[in-house]
Amino acid sequence: MIGVAAPAEDMDVAREFFELFKTPWEPVVPGRRYPVVLSTIGNPGTLDPGLLVLYGSSETDTDRASRVVLEPGCGPSEVTFDGSSFPVYGSFASFSGNRRTGLLACGTRAVDYRHRSPAGATWRVGYDLFHEVRHLLTQGQPDAYAPTPTLEWHIEVLRTVLVESRVPFVEVPPRPADHDFICCLTHDIDFHAIRRHTWDLTLAGFIGRASIGTAIDLCRGRRSLADALRNWAAVASLPLVHLGLMRDFWQPFESYARADASRRSTFFLVPRKGHPGTAPDGTVRPLRAVDYEVGEICDDVRELVNGGHEVAVHGIDAWQDAGCGRAEMMAVKAVTGTATAGVRMHWLYFAPDSPAHLEAAGFSYDSTWGFNDVIGYRAGTPQVFRLPASRDLLELPFTIMDTALFYAGNMALTREEALVRCSAIVAHARRFGGTVVVNWHDRSLAPERLWGRSYEQLLAALGEADRTWFATATEAVDWFRWRRSIRFHRIPESTCVTVDTSEHNRVDIAAMIRVHRPDGGGGSTEDVPFDGRQAVRVRV
Fold first, then answer.
1. Within-domain flag for 176
2. Prior bond of 76 cis (ω within 30°)
3. Which of 21, 180, 319, 325 could form a Cys-Cys staple with 155, CB 3.0–4.6 A?
4. Distances, alpha carbon 85 to alpha carbons 82, 276, 378, 538, in Å
5. What is the DSSP letter of 213?
6. How far is CA 24 from the centre of its chain?
7. Three-state SS for 526?
8. The pLDDT of residue 133
């Protein structure tokens, strides 16, 4: 059990941190002895822990007793750890002088150190953990640090401190038993059928990109001749497509039925056509309006649902108004017959009070937290988490989006470059667990984009070694919600693990209880399957 000493205003963030690093903890209780105390308010003094993990950038009694020289710094600044680096966004301290070598460095200076005195062992870390976590879960990361799962590195630092200090502990990693991570294939459906577009900007843009734009890309080596011929053929076929004499090549459900094969996907569908909504800056951008709505494609939607796929809301105004959110949810429910659990905002519109609006509208998860122009971790984590402005609404962050990878104004990558960037995210998932949420749009397998080959390569990378659970968005969120309901109970020389019966108490895919013991020279770990059906007692 970790006792946490932090300001009252940080306890909500601490609670969320320990849902992500799922290990026993509690706010410190005076007079109770803890094997570990994590403090962001200096040395608690009277608690007498076996190990004090002391976070913060201000000078402490420990620093003075250790005779270290503290040098203040202000983030964002990169800290190196275990051969990688991650950003610290707030103030931090680096140390030099009489110290034992630690784990973290900023340039040539240490950002942590170990100190032992007659009172016990202290591991000093030069930044405020919960201020960093709050920044990630509220403001998020800038594009420059998008590739870095910063919050997972914070968890890994604390885990390593415990292991190297030979502290026995248990945790529930963020991955289902016998799997490395969860993958959700999601598709934002912004367009449905090119024949809906006659002499409008959408059609004109398609013709320009598929004809002249394709020729330019071919000359630059960014298009193959085969892809160029497909695009030119699609332009030539437009009159026949509009007359109904040829198949409409903007048919996303047919295309993804083939591409996703047996994998069940989540489709975010627009509830209201011709309505652009209001932007966060108060302006109205007519280009945001969509030319179809879910009620016009009932047969397609019901076929998706009957095939085991999930249908969710691609919201227009739900991000700023709970009443609009309820109306958008009901528009989808009118077609599917069941209330949808999830929402992702069109154009990723979001505001600090959006979680409260979405929760009041009745959604159980949102999947808007990602980037329009790069791929990566907006909140620094691939795990499902609770946004601070909500009570029960969970956020399923997406990490990979096709338009961010390939659009000229965004990353503008080649197919080979995109695979390298996506493979790095998959590698993080195999190390840390969590989810990889892919957003591949409706037109992306069709002319003029033709990003189908990249999608195939990504699916192959995601499914490597058959240790990926391909789940719908709701299934992934429900698994993490169930994991959040796991409770730890300390009993003599062991820990009892249960599931809160007031929450989800049953899942089809179990979790693993990981037991860390300081046995032998380097310690050992044991994984115990846990499905929540009955309590499990593990020795620590």
1. no
2. yes
3. 21
4. 8, 41, 16, 34
5. I
6. 23
7. strand
8. 98
| CA gap 247, 193 in Å, rounded | 10
- State how far the Cα of 175 lies from the Cα of 473, in Å rounded to an integer: 15
Q: Where a domain ends, among 249, 273, 290?
A: 249
Say how far apart CA 141 and CA 69 lie, in whole Å: 30
User: Measured between alpha carbons, how far is 356 from 358 in angstroms, rounded to an integer?
Assistant: 6
Residue 498 has a pLDDT of 85
> Residue 158 is part of which domain span?
2-171
Residues sharing a CB contact under 8 Å with residue 284, sequence separation 6 or more, in sequence order = 276, 277, 278
| Residues 184-237: tens digit of each pLDDT | 999 999 999 999 998 899 999 999 999 999 999 999 999 999 999 999 999 999
For the chain, what is the total number of helices (H) and then of strands (E)? Answer: 16, 28
Confirm if 186 and 473 have CB atoms less than 8 A apart: yes
Q: Which residues pair with 314 in a beta bridge?
A: 344
pLDDT at position 503 is 59
Specify whether 165 is located in the same domain as 214. Answer: no
Strand order in the sheet with 511-517: 169-171, 511-517, 524-530
Regions in the chain scoring below 70 on pLDDT: 46, 98-101, 501-506, 520-522
Residue 401 covered by a domain: yes
Query: Is residue 341 a part of any domain in this protein?
Result: yes
268/271 Cα distance (integer angstroms): 9
Cα–Cα distance measured from residue 259 to residue 459, given in angstroms and rounded to the nearest whole number: 9
19-30: b or e for each residue (b if 16 or more CB lie within 10 Å)?
A: bbbbbbbeebee
CA distances from 487 to 35, 482, 490, 496 (A): 19, 11, 10, 8
- Domain boundary among the residues 249, 268, 283 is at 249
pLDDT at residue 381, as a whole number: 98
Q: Residues 473, 489: one domain?
A: no
- Dihedral sign (CA 155, 132, 167, 164): positive
**Residue 76 DSSP label:** S
Question: Do 357 and 325 form a contact (C-beta atoms < 8 A)?
Answer: yes
How far is it, in rounded angstroms, from Cα 255 to Cα 192?
12
Total count of domains within the chain: 4
Closest CA to 184 of 459, 511, 424, 512: 459
The number of residues making up the chain comes to 540
Which residue do the tokens 């338009």 mark? 403
| pLDDT of the residue at 522 | 65
pLDDT of residue 145: 97
Alpha carbon distance 76, 376 (integer Å) = 18
> What sign for the dihedral angle of Cα 402, 403, 405, 406?
positive
Q: How far apart are CA 67 and CA 87, in angstroms?
A: 27
Q: How far apart are CA 398 and CA 383, in angstroms?
A: 10
Calpha distance 27→40 (Å, rounded):
12
